[in-house]
Amino acid sequence: MRHEISPRSGAAFALDRGQRLTVIDPCGEQVSDLLAFARADSDEVISSGRTLDYLSRIYLTAPDPIYSNRSNIMLRIIQDTVGRHDFLLTPCSKDTFRIIYGDSQPHRGCFGNLAAALEPFGIAPDRIPVAFNLFMNVAVDGVSGELKVLPPLSKAGDRIVLEAEMDLIIGLTACSALQSNNGSFKPIHYSIDDGPVPLAAFNGSG
Amino acid sequence: MRHEISPRSGAAFALDRGQRLTVIDPCGEQVSDLLAFARADSDEVISSGRTLDYLSRIYLTAPDPIYSNRSNIMLRIIQDTVGRHDFLLTPCSKDTFRIIYGDSQPHRGCFGNLAAALEPFGIAPDRIPVAFNLFMNVAVDGVSGELKVLPPLSKAGDRIVLEAEMDLIIGLTACSALQSNNGSFKPIHYSIDDGPVPLAAFNGSG
Fold first, then answer.
1. Could you give the CA distance from residue A48 to residue A199 in angstroms, rounded to a whole number?
2. In angstroms, how far is CA A153 from the centroid of its own chain?
C-alpha cells in the first residue's frame, strides 16, 4: 500500500525490525526529511555525527548503515536509485524561513511538521536532530567549506529503500523549503513492506 | 587564570553571557571538543545542523555565530589563530575506539569524559550532540564525500576565543583519539574573562 505525504507536510509511523521502508519521489526533485527513534527508548535517535564518523564519508547510499547516538545500527540502505542525499542539515523551520528567506510570516517547515507528527509518540521538538534528508543535494566545496543547496538529482519515480535493524518510530516529510526542491512543493510517497522471510522460517515450517 | 585539562580528560563549567572563553592548544596539534547548553534550559543545545545551514559553510572562524537547536545564537567566535575546526563529528567514545580502532578495552573517550563532567549539571549522555571540535582538521572531498581526519593545523600557543551570547554550561575536552591529534595525547588550556565593559556602564558611572 502506497501512502502519500502532501506537499509541505509530514507523517510519523512505526517501522518494525526487518521491515523495509520505500520512499519514492513521485514527481522528481522533491526532498524528504527522515528521522528515526528507537521505539524501546526514544532517547536513542538517528545520529549524523556517529554515522559520518564510522563511514568516513558525508554522502550515503546502499548498502550503508545509519547509526544512532548510541552507536547502534538503526537502518540500512538496501536500494537507492539516486545516490545523493544530505546528512548535514537540520529540518527547515520557522527560523530557517525567517533567517534565510526573510519571511515575516514563516511556514512551520519540516521541523514543525515533524514535531506535530511525533508528538503522539511522546517525542518533544527539542529531540529533533540533524535529519537524513532524502534526495537533498547539498554540494560541499572542500577548500572553502561552502555549502550549496542544489536541485535534487531525483527524477519522477526514483526511490530509496531502507531496512530497519531495530523497532523504530519514523518521521518523514515532503520538504517545505523552496530552495531544496528547485522552486516547487511536491508530494512524497512511501510504503512499508515486510523484508524477505528468513531461511529459518522456511526450515521451521517444513 | 589559566586552567589545564589533562590529556584524554574533560571539564564542564558555567560561562555567563558576555564572558569570553579562550581555548589554547599549548603544545600544538591537539583537538578540544566543545559543547554548549543553555543554563536556563539544558534542552537548548549547540546545533551543527542549524549553524551550518545558516552560515552555508562547514568551516567556522571569527566572527561566525554558533546557533542552538532553537536557532538562538549561543556563542560567537571573536578571535581564531588557526581557522580550521570540525563541526561534523560526534565526540570520540568507547564505540569509536571499538568500531574504528578495533580496541578490545576501549577508553571512554571525549564522550565519556563529557558525560562525566556534565552529570553534575543534570545533563544526560543522550543529550550530547555533534560537538564543535576545536583545532580538529577534517578534510572533505566534495566529489566523493570522503572525510579524512588530518593532523590539526594548530601550533603551540594557538587559540580560539568565543564570547557567550547567553548564560551557558560548557563542556570541553583534551581529545582522546590518536588520529585526531597526530598520534599523541596532549593537554588543553582555557581561561574565562569578562568581555569588554559596555559603553553604557561608563556612561552610568559618570
1. 33
2. 16
Report, in this order, helix, strand and coil percent for chain B, each rounded to 5: 20, 35, 45
* A112 and A130 Cβ atoms separated by less than 8 Å: no
The three cell numbers of residue A55 are 563511514
Residue whose C-alpha cell reads 561566525 in the numeric block: B64
pTM of this structure = 0.94
The complex's ipTM works out to 0.93
Task: Flag if A100 and B54 touch (Cβ within 8 Å).
Answer: yes
pLDDT in tens, B72-101: 999 999 999 999 999 999 999 999 899 888
- The CA-atom distances, in angstroms, between A168 and each of A38, A48, A106, A109, B133 are 5, 17, 31, 23, 30
Q: Could you give the CA distance from residue B188 to residue B28 in angstroms, rounded to a whole number?
A: 9
Instruction: From chain B, pick out residues whose CB is under 8 angstroms from the CB of A50.
Output: 90, 95
pLDDT in tens, B117-146: 999 999 999 999 999 999 999 999 999 999
User: Is B141 in a helix, a strand, or coil?
Assistant: coil
Give B141's contacts in chain A (Cβ within 8 Å).
142
Three-state secondary-structure class, residue A204:
helix
- In whole angstroms, give the CA distance from residue A29 to residue A46: 24
